[in-house]
UniProtKB/TrEMBL annotation:
<comment type="similarity">
    <text>Belongs to the SAICAR synthetase family.</text>
</comment>
<dbReference type="InterPro" id="IPR018236">
    <property type="entry name" value="SAICAR_synthetase_CS"/>
</dbReference>
<keyword id="KW-0547">Nucleotide-binding</keyword>
<dbReference type="GO" id="GO:0009236">
    <property type="term" value="P:cobalamin biosynthetic process"/>
</dbReference>
<dbReference type="GO" id="GO:0004639">
    <property type="term" value="F:phosphoribosylaminoimidazolesuccinocarboxamide synthase activity"/>
</dbReference>
<dbReference type="Pfam" id="PF01259">
    <property type="entry name" value="SAICAR_synt"/>
</dbReference>
<dbReference type="InterPro" id="IPR033934">
    <property type="entry name" value="SAICAR_synt_PurC"/>
</dbReference>
<dbReference type="InterPro" id="IPR028923">
    <property type="entry name" value="SAICAR_synt/ADE2_N"/>
</dbReference>
<keyword id="KW-0658">Purine biosynthesis</keyword>
<dbReference type="InterPro" id="IPR050089">
    <property type="entry name" value="SAICAR_synthetase"/>
</dbReference>
<dbReference type="GO" id="GO:0005829">
    <property type="term" value="C:cytosol"/>
</dbReference>
<comment type="pathway">
    <text>Purine metabolism; IMP biosynthesis via de novo pathway; 5-amino-1-(5-phospho-D-ribosyl)imidazole-4-carboxamide from 5-amino-1-(5-phospho-D-ribosyl)imidazole-4-carboxylate: step 1/2.</text>
</comment>
<dbReference type="GO" id="GO:0005524">
    <property type="term" value="F:ATP binding"/>
</dbReference>
<dbReference type="GO" id="GO:0006189">
    <property type="term" value="P:'de novo' IMP biosynthetic process"/>
</dbReference>
<dbReference type="InterPro" id="IPR001636">
    <property type="entry name" value="SAICAR_synth"/>
</dbReference>
<keyword id="KW-0067">ATP-binding</keyword>
<protein>
    <recommendedName>
        <fullName>Phosphoribosylaminoimidazole-succinocarboxamide synthase</fullName>
        <ecNumber>6.3.2.6</ecNumber>
    </recommendedName>
</protein>
Length: 238
């Protein structure tokens, strides 16, 4: 079937999602927008949408190669990808390998502390409530996801962590933390949304220079240059 883009389904902070003539497929359009602090800080950067689209495809293909089901079908253009239409769970799975950000603020731990074993946290995906932390009892009580698929989310997330930590380390990068989102596709748990530098933290191994969206959050500058440097180190074609 020739896929045709149809009406907009919804627009998020940095992506717009479109319906297609196939009810089981969607098109993701990665915009050049960058936002932080629940949308209070917004700016556009030339080429950011293209970089995120291609970087996401690079990572999703790496994960598919180790047996993680993902929603990515293929790249359609510089800023568009064709994906399976999932029934998304309103849950963010966050893994922290090094202490920084909200973990330090909440628990008073020192920034840069190595976390062994990694810390796994669930958050409710709800902008109006500022994505509060939740646990498995909340998920079960409010029926946000079947408990067997919650267990599978954790299993997939730690497998992904093992693979990506090594992938980034070989590029002289530390995978500090990141978030994943999952959904159901015809009864199968599938990794959805995106894996881009908007949703993870990466530091240089030696200098601990930040090479992720914290450069925008903290006004450090050089956001696109940092994203391009990460892709270059990984050998991802942009």
């Amino acid at each position: 079937m020739l896929i045709e883009k149809q009406t907009e389904l919804y627009s998020g902070k940095a992506k717009t999602v479109y319906m297609t003539n196939d009810p089981t497929r969607l098109i993701l359009y990665f915009r050049d927008d960058t936002s932080a602090f629940d949308g209070r800080k917004i700016e556009q950067f030339t080429r950011k949408g293209e970089i995120n689209n291609k970087f996401n495809a690079f990572i999703m293909e790496k994960l598919a190669a180790i047996g993680i089901p993902t929603h990515l079908e293929r790249l359609l253009s510089a800023q568009e990808s064709l994906v399976k239409r999932l029934k998304m769970f309103p849950i963010e799975c966050v893994v922290r390998n090094i202490a920084t950000g909200s973990l330090c603020r909440r628990l008073g731990v020192q920034e840069g502390m190595d976390l062994n074993p990694p810390v796994f946290e669930f958050f409710l995906k709800n902008d109006a409530l500022h994505d509060p932390m939740i646990n498995e009892y909340h998920i079960r009580t409010f029926h946000w996801a079947p408990i067997d698929q919650v267990e599978q989310m954790k299993e997939y997330t730690f497998r992904i962590n093992d693979v990506l930590k090594q992938l980034f380390l070989e590029a002289n990068l530390l995978l500090v933390d990141y978030k994943l989102e999952f959904g159901d596709f015809q009864g199968q748990l599938v990794l959805g949304d995106e894996f881009t530098l908007d949703g993870c933290r990466l530091w240089d191994v030696e200098t601990r220079k930040k090479l992720d969206k914290d450069r925008f959050r903290q006004g450090l500058g050089g956001l696109i240059e940092a994203y391009e440097e990460v892709a270059q180190r990984l050998g991802a074609s942009l």
